[in-house]
Each structure stands twice: as C-alpha cells, then as structure tokens.
Amino acid sequence: MVAAISSAERRLAFAAVLIVLFLGALDQTIVATAMPRIVAELAGLDRIAWVGTAYLLTSTVTVPIYGKLGDLFGRRPVLEFGVIVFLIGSMLCGLAGEFGALPLIGDGMNQLILCRSLQGIGAGALTTGAFATVADLVPPAERGRYTGMFGAMFGLAGLAGPVLGGLLTDHASTTILGAPVSGWRFIFYVNLPLGLVALTMLVRALPAGRRGADARIDWTGSALIILATVPLLLALGWGGDGGGFGQPRVVIGFGIAAAAFAVFLAASRGKPHAVVPLDLFADRVVARGSLALFLVNLAYMGVPMFLPLYLQTVRGLSASASGIAMLPLLFGILIGSMTAGQTARRTRAYKPVLVAGGTLTLVALAVLTRLGPDWPRWLLPLDLFVLGLGLGPAQGMFTLAIQSAVTPARTGVATAASQFCRQMGATVGVAVFGALMTHGLARELDARVPVLVGGDPAVLLSRAQTLAMDPVALAGALAAAGVDGAGAAHAAGLALIDSFAFAIEALFPVALALMVLAFLMTLSVPARRLRGAEAPAAAHDPDAAVATA
Predict the structure, then answer these.
(1) What count of Cα atoms within 13 Å lies in the side-chain half-sphere of residue 493?
(2) 7-36: per-residue pLDDT in tens?
(3) Angle of CA points 232, 236, 238, to nearest 5°
(4) Structure pTM?
C-alpha cells in the first residue's frame, strides 16, 4: 500500500532514490565510451563483451533476491547495502591491471571482469530498489510523472556519461607517486564521491522499512538462475571467439543452461516464496510486458555497446568525440521518457506511448542498418535522436504497467521480476552481440589480413583494435611476421579498419529483427487503465480492466 508520509518527506525520499538511480545509470553509460581504450590498453578485445556481461549478469541474478529482501525488510537497508558494495567494486575496477597479473585471476582484463562482477552485485539493488520505493510511496495512476523522472535520470546519466567518460579517458591521465595512471581509471573512481552523497541521502531521507510476515528466500531458485545463466553466457562467448558455435564446450554450455532452466521452472511452480513467482505471469500484462521488456533490451544493446567502438576504430574519433556523438541518442531517451511519463499521468494509459515509441524505434533501426562510410555527417545524430525518442517510453512504462497489474503487497516482487527481465535482456544482448561481433571480426581478419592471423586467430583478435589504431604497433607486428614496407603497413591498416566496419555494421540488421519481435509483443500487451490509490489490482481476474479512481 502507499506509504502514509507527508509530501515534504516524500519529495526528500524521492530525491535520495533519484541520486541512487543516477549512480547506477551513470556507470553503464560512462564505461561504454571508454571501453575501446580500456581493451586496447589491457589487450582484451576478445573479452570485451565480458566486461559488460559480468556486470549485467551479477546485477541481474541478484534483482529477484533484492526485491524479496526489500519486501521483507524495507527498501532502505537493501539500497544502503547495494551502494556500499557498488563503491567497493568501483574502486577495485579502477585498480585492475595496475599491479600486473595476479595469481588465479590473471591479467588486467580478467581482473576488470571480476571486479565488474562485484560492482554488479551492488548495482542489482539500485534500480530495483529505486522503482519499488516509488511504488511504495505513490499510487499507480500518479507514478507516470515519477517514472518519467526516472527515465529522465537515465537520460541525464546518458548525457553526462559518454561525455564525462570520453573527457576522463582522453585528458585525466596523470602520475601518482611516480606511477602513471590512465585516464580511463577515473571513470570508476568518480563513483566514489557520488556514492557517498547517495549513501548519506538514503540514511537521512528514506523511511525505514518493516519486516514482512514471510521471511523465506528461495535460495534454490536463485542458484538455478545462476546455473542457467552462466553456462549460456559462456557458450555465447566461446562461440564468438573464432572457433564457431559447433564446438563441444559450446554445445555442452547450451545444454546445461537449458536443463537448469527447466529445473528452475519445475522447482518454482506452486512455490509462493519463489525468487520469481511464476503465478505473477498468469496476468497477461505481467507476462507479455516482461517478455517485451526482455526483447527491447536484448535488441538495443548492440547500439550503445559497439557504436563507440565503430566511431573510434573505423571513423577515427577520439573517446571524447565518440561520447559527444552518442549524445543525440541520450537526448532522445530523455525527452521520450519524460513525455511518456507525463502522457501516462494525464491519460492513465500506457499502451499508446509504448506503441508510438516502438514504431519510432523500428524506423530508426531500419535506417541504421544502412550505416556506411558514405553517410552524410548529419544523418547519424538525427537517426540516433529518433532512436532515443522511441526507446524512451520503454524505460519506465512497462514497469509501470506491471506494477499496476498486481496487488500492492506484491509490488516488490513484480518490480523485481520486470527488472530481472529488463537486465536479463541486456545481459544476453551484450553476450549475443559480443559473440556476433567477435565471430564476424575473426572471419574478416582471417580473410583480409591472413599474414597477421598466423595459426591462432584468437591472439590477433585480442590485439586487433590496438593494431588498427596504432601504426607503430602494426608495423612491429608486420615485421615480426616477416613483412616490411610502408605500403604493406598502410594496406594492412586499411584491411583492419574494414574488418571492424563489416563486423560491426552486420550487427544492426540483427538488432532490427529482434526489435520487430519486441514490437509485436508490445502490441499484444493488454491496454488497461492505470489504477488509482483506492483501486486494488485485479489479482484474481487478470484479463479484466483495472478499476479507475
């Protein structure tokens, strides 16, 4: 039920939640611009997808657990724990590779992946806790304005992140105690002061929660989710390393994932305290909205993940310039999200804005499939802006619809379920597009620069970006392969750039096809009116229209 607090207390609590949400959102956008420079320094292009996948995996599998804990013990302790773990992970991410290879962990790229996993454990509490807190404080019919502001916070983080990440990467390099410190490390260190402000605000502003009646947590279900997800992501990564998806370890990984998911469904059936209560999905809004949210994020991840790599490697932009080039996308998300929130608040309807947004997204992605060197300079920013306008409504409207479809007592688990689907889509999306990109790049490199591939394509894949962006390193690699001459180096450099161009441009038709599926699922979501403070969800009649205040 809606918490009985004053308007002033609600505004203060909401401000605290916005800061927490900004902290998690900023980390996702600030890292993307710096990734090409990070993988070049740590020689880990073959593992680029895992930097994002590790973060998304741990933040995703912990979402249902945090949702349950929030229902039991209140949102504040969960959010405080999440912020603390997130800050520890951020500090360790900034230190990755500073001390060379470490026992058991390995090189700097492996260290970064591990620390991003820790960071994700904390981040899982941030978004889920933020959305569920607003559900505790505000009735569904009034949440459009707040979810619009959440989308705006994602947009603000999206605007600040790429620019700040590029500026820090290009200009923050310094020397501390005689040791050089690369600028990209500060994209993680910047979380520390911001996180301390967020933690202080939470302690002072957010009402303390009270323990729920049922304190059981489905640890078996949580373990099965991990057992299903990790082999799936490993198999996708292995399939993209140049060896193909027919390798025995890839087939075994997919098999384990499928078996674990089947066991998870069987174990969760009829269990009232399941980590993802399956009876939630008896409601068509919850089931179809969650699947649409999964597909939207699955389809979208190829753009922010690999477009900066394209701009820096193929178009030759600096990290700062590529961050600025991504701003139209984020401006669009900001405007689209705020407009959708205000429209839903006035009309008490979520489906029209979701359908309009999906239409714009399809048009923009269709145009992006034609990306090439002959594009006019004005077309990419315009197309990214339209893409952002289309994606903006999905940032909060699906969650808003799902919250309105369940009883107030199940708001936490329903919010967690929707966020789980959102982040699982993003997690699988990063892995899928990463596998497609590395697999395509390995194929292109083998065809275009066989002299550099030698007998081990994976070795070239790990340092291909460095060679494409550093003529000195390329000349050294060619000399080691017995090839000399400026002409040969120039031709090899162009072949490397073309390899990246073809591999990345091939991702956008896949994104479009997946977004078509997401749009079809959006069309199938029932169109209900958002309930007010005095109208309970139709828990026992999922297909009935929700009563309005």
Answers:
(1) 16
(2) 777 777 778 788 888 887 787 778 877 888
(3) 115
(4) 0.75
